[in-house]
Amino acid sequence: MYYLGVDLGGTNIAVGLVNEKGELLHKESIPTIRERNYEEILKDLANLCIKIIKDNNLEVKDIESIGVGSPGTCDSKEGVIVYSNNIAFENTPLRKEIQKYIDLPVFLENDANCAALGESVRGAAYGYKDSITITLGTGIGGGVLINGKILSGAFFGGGELGHHVIVSGGEQCTCGRKGCWEAYASATALIRDTKIAALRYPLSKISEEVNGDFNLISAKTVFDVAEKGDKVATEVIDKYLSYIAEGVANMLNIFQPEIIVIGGGVCAQGEKILLPIEAHVKKLSYGGELKTKMAIAKLGNDAGIIGAAMLGLN
Amino acid sequence: MYYLGVDLGGTNIAVGLVNEKGELLHKESIPTIRERNYEEILKDLANLCIKIIKDNNLEVKDIESIGVGSPGTCDSKEGVIVYSNNIAFENTPLRKEIQKYIDLPVFLENDANCAALGESVRGAAYGYKDSITITLGTGIGGGVLINGKILSGAFFGGGELGHHVIVSGGEQCTCGRKGCWEAYASATALIRDTKIAALRYPLSKISEEVNGDFNLISAKTVFDVAEKGDKVATEVIDKYLSYIAEGVANMLNIFQPEIIVIGGGVCAQGEKILLPIEAHVKKLSYGGELKTKMAIAKLGNDAGIIGAAMLGLN
Questions:
Q1: What is the pTM for the complete model shown?
Q2: Inter-chain CB proximity B154 and A292 less than 8 Å
Q3: B20: number of CA atoms within 13 Å, CB side?
Q4: Which of A168, A177, A132, A126 lies closest to A150, judged by CA?
Q5: ipTM of the assembly?
């Protein structure tokens, strides 16, 4: 039996064909063109599903279900996207709309939760029942699995790990609060802090690295500059990793999962960030003992597709 | 059928007879005398259980199980208190020890988790499957119920809600970290901040209230002084309630339970603290919308006994 998994993003809609082991057999994507109304977007989504079924010489009856991971608050029971500021969805009846075109069960879940499920099915959290996957990107996405089940909250707004305050009254967060973990440990925060450091320490090599064009500063920049021996860049990274660790240590005291997986673009740095984060977290742990394993995500963007597909099994 | 619930505290051991509805029919307590070795303490505990069975004209076969709530990390699977700094227990085989004296199933769980279960069975969280009960006392105890089940973490160290940092690098916490919620929102923190305010503002009426004897300052003092119109006291309370709200808002974004119950001595203030906390939390909530209900705990110290007894049903 096969499953279709959809990563419904602000830029692209990616659909994958997945088998019951969570193996991604085929994937394709189309632009979301998010300015359109939801009917048009979801019609394209459904048609891409139909195309993939055909291209793989399958029929609708060979497919168990379609799972969709979407940004925002998703009512997984009703199959309705309650709210997403990434795509202008509000009370969007996703399940009903997709089923206009294709007669299959449709599951819906928040995209960060899907990524967590994907990592647990075939990625870094494989084999663990209690896991947390955090994705350090534009924001911080978080997905919590307890005994293999997604924690989505009583009203589908739980698992928003990036929006817990670690610095009361601190940096402004997009959610309206001040000092959220996301405002310190997302890639966006790292870029902001890299720029601030470049302004404060003009002799650092950060500015030189981008020929003085701050628009070119990415999350990678500060790592490249540190590699060249720049002390300011090293300090920015140290501070950044300590903020990641502060939030991770909070998650350990709150959930104590078997494993915490760190994903997102920043993770291209691999052990270079994992080891210092782990060392920090260990220092912050009660008695200096760290029972929870820590790992870098394995599946990249495929995690969301695989996880969405596996909603049919979850 | 009946259940015995035990609240094994640093000062007293309280045992209650509870029916299957969670009604507390009879309770009795004895001093813990925690300097003793665990064998003596648990022998007393078992004997009190036997006494209560007899005093109620029951027999051991009328009792379904004994549930024990203990401070510290409790391996509920093995029935072993892994570590508690409140009573000097370390790898204490509680279940085995109690069963030397009384042939019944023995369940063990962290005391804050028992209090949460108690509030959900007969208290403020009655009727809700997803609830969090926080107890503001010497520290902050937290218990999380998801779909009616206690969240205890993969290695029985989860649910330590008081030890999530809300002010990175802030006040020293007993756990070793700096800036934990407990270091800002426990009764201990309130007493510290009341004393600091009295020192900084000698014209405030705080010092007068205790005739200059700082040892007499309790969590209640600042509320009594504020009642008399003292501005400094009012500011201490406002700040304190905002810290409670900061942590509560974090819990909402992380778990989004149906209800959050606030317990502990400070809650004697009732709506006087609940309403401002609720208003604060609402302001901190995404879109200013608060779906989760908030309430003051109903069962006081009985919550732990009732919850422990109900471990046999959970």
A1: 0.95
A2: yes
A3: 5
A4: A132
A5: 0.94
